[in-house]
Amino acid sequence: MAKVKGEIVINSERCKGCELCVPVCQQKTIAMSDKLNSKGYHYAMSINDECNGCINCALICPDGVISVYRVKLNDAAIA
Amino acid sequence: MEEELTRESICQHENLVYSRTSLMTPKALSYCPGCGHGTAHRLIMEVIEEMNLQSQTIGVAPVGCSVLAYDFLDIDMQQAAHGRAPAVATGIKRLLPDKFVFTYQGDGDLAAIGTGETIHACNRGENICIFFVNNGIYGMTGGQMAPTTLPNMKTATSPYGRDVVTMGYPLKITEMVAMLPGTCFVTRQSVHTPANVRKTKKAIQKAVQCQLDKKGLSFVEIVSNCNSGWKMTPLESNKWMEENMFPVFPLGDIKVPKS
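Structure tokens for the assembled complex are given below, as produced in the milestone run.
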């Protein structure tokens, strides 16, 4: 059971499809989409809810298109 | 079972742990997909934001891929002629000693046409920071051989590979400036993995602190990829960089300030 739960928000219009974020995600949350954005790149997207908010993807992203959110599950249960 | 966490309930401002710093302008970066310049820009801006230096920072942009850095960094910037950024930064820092002054240069700018300016600024011990992005090639002009190009590396102007007999060896300018008494902090980092990104940010923080403490010139080399110039995908180029660049340009601190 994960103690924290994360979520990523990817600015898909700004993503250049370099795929650097895919191998650094240990939860295999990120994959490249089949669709193209308006610049013609296959953008990164979140494909499952395993994200633990480790921010690896956001650190490696050269264009800074990924925002990471994280909550502690215990806190959420109390709330 | 407790209340289900939805995507909307997690993506609230109070849960935000990382996002692009507001010191980067909203403009899309002009760099190729996967280029390390974007990460290097962001790290410098994050450090400036965390140290609350935005209003007193003056950056000097180079000529090269990062020639448009002033478009992306939301601070006061000055554009220098090719290779002359350390000379321009010297002038700015001497006239405005209370400002935080840095140059951001590539290897074609700093280690080729600007070698003289770089070495003499380091030798004078100007109280500035130099951020040097080394990708071993002239990226903007189409992948020509740079002084930092590796032996046997194929480029547009060395199509059979760099022959060290006629073209010389890769210039290790970071090691050169570390020998000069004017430099205070000299390090070589990279931005190809999250761990290295964190280390690079720490190095940039240290470099900024050295300048605020008036200790002398700090020189941070960031070994980066140039996937377009190297004709590889971003992931392949990072792997190639680990296997080929790091033996010649080993990562780590070369000179640390005496505490």
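The radius of gyration of chain B is 19 Å. The interface with chain A takes residues 2-3, 5, 7, 9-12, 15-21, 24, 28-29, 31-39, 42, 191-194, 197-198, 233-235, 238 of chain B (CB under 8 Å). Further analysis is deferred to the final report.
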